[in-house]
Amino acid sequence: MTQRIVHELVGYHPATDEWIWSVELLRDGLETIKRMIETDEDDPDAIGSYPVDFAIATDIAGLVGAGPLDPALVYYMEPYAEASAPA
Questions:
Q1: How do residues 9-36 score in pLDDT, each as one tens digit?
Q2: pLDDT tens digits, 49-73
């Protein structure tokens, strides 16, 4: 098995840090999304967690066909490793 990095736009409750909502970000649009949220140049694979303001989160949700978003949540782009079967 191999692993691949998958990115999600995630919404958390600001008072409890509870995960409330997420949507997977497809690889096809990831470069555009990374530019929108201004990921660090020294993190080309965006393996860090990046805060996303509501206006940009709304634009990203529109790109991936998700939404509407809750303006009360705090949004981040976050990666996780997903196991995949060998090709």
A1: 999 999 999 999 999 998 889 999 999 9
A2: 999 999 999 999 999 999 899 999 9
Distance CA 30, CA 71 (A): 23
Identify which of 53, 3, 4, 65 has the alpha carbon closest to the alpha carbon of residue 29.
Answer: 65
Can you tell me the distance from the alpha carbon of 24 to that of 8, in angstroms, rounded to the nearest whole number? 4
> Do 50 and 33 meet the contact criterion of CB atoms below 8 Å apart?
no
Q: What backbone torsions phi and psi does residue 15 show, to the nearest 5 degrees?
A: -85, -30
The structural domain count of the chain equals 1
Residue numbers of the domain that contains 80: 2-84
Residue 74 belongs to domain with CATH number: 3.10.50.20
Prior bond to 68 cis, omega within 30? yes
